[in-house]
## 1
Amino acid sequence: MSRSYNQYCPIACALDLVGERWSLLVVRELLERGELRYSDLLARLDGCGTNILAARLKHLEAGGVLRRRQLPPPAASTVYELTEYGEGLRLVMHQLAHWGARVMGPPRNEDLEPGWLVGALQTAFPPAVTASRVEFRIGEEVASLVDGEAQAGAIENPDLVVTGDAAGFYHLVVDRDLDAVSVRGTRTNLRSLLAVLPPPAPPAVVPVDLVAQSHKVVA
């Protein structure tokens, strides 16, 4: 059973809802992927026990963060999706991701799964961030921003094409280092895109073992 901080404080009340272990990662998955079945969430959240996931989903549903919905036949599956209130966490997660990126440091190849780039774009850039059509070619991954929305794959007639490796993408987004990638198009447009991101956080001073723990597979 979850415990309350019993404080008349918006931060404490928010943590009462989403502060338990795995809760925000459930929100992350639903933000990135939309509606998901219980089995989908369990597969995505490696290390989360089935009883823990069931408890977190029940708590988040009771708090109005997500809801269950029955898909029509022939699927007839029960899926979980964020409510409008739960969708309000998108910008919170965006800010938290930029703050936490300093702890992770640049990724290693083994940290990333196929398809990671589209999720990284969703996490890095707030919705409707730009009207430009931007294509990212990072290592073997290709994903794009179209009308501010991230999508997998290449696009026709991009305004910008950003090419580099995963470490370069990290330094572009976290450090705003345009020299970490190659740019085809007007670099001013890329600067404008980066300008809407949160101000770069100062380098984090954290124990080495915590940095090592942060190098887990990112989907």
## 2
Amino acid sequence: MPRLDESMQSHKIGGSFTFSAARVERLGAAEYTLVTVAVDETGSVQGFSDQLREMLVTAVESCKKSPRSDNLLIRVITFGTQYKNGVNEIHGFKPLGEIDTVSYPTIKPGGSTPLYDACYSAIGSQNVYGKKLDDQDFSCNGIVFIITDGGENASVATAQMVADEAKKSVSGEILESMISVLIGINGSSYSRWLSQFQKDAGLTQYIDAGDATPRKLAKLAAFVSKSVSSQSQALGTGGPSQNISATI
């Protein structure tokens, strides 16, 4: 995990999984949408790693155009077995206005695919921080994107751990609503496996985004920012956004 400044605080999910988030006393709004974007950094993304970073930067920057931009707390992670517990936190949950995407590091592909670790960290962190915010009388909902070009082959976390966290997130007891989107990019050979995993783990949906072309990655960035905006606008309705597209 990156070295924390005084505005951030470390939290534990379970086992040795941790994440960082803005200190609650620093938050100025009464309600927030928690957003997590997890991007594959394994060896197989070597051919389009620069485009993946560009997609990530574009997606986060586009969120700043949302009418609800002041109500977004965004966490960005990458995943690969070169990192402890398979997860590298670029930054924890922080207000969108404090995020400097220029400082996002180059994606350096390496290692195998700890997909369960990425899902567990992404969803589990929303549950833990969402509960903390709820205890302080903030209204919250959440949305998670896990972007990968392959299937699971190297996690510390188990599929059951992912399923347990996903079940918690949609119970309505922590977050008002939660949407979790598993996205396959350049991974058609894994599409059937990813689709089945989405169902088994209780994730909201799986989308096969197709080949990792500049056009497709641009559409993926637009999909992320539009989905974030839609879910944020749904906060207070008692349910998830009904405007999340089933395709990219």
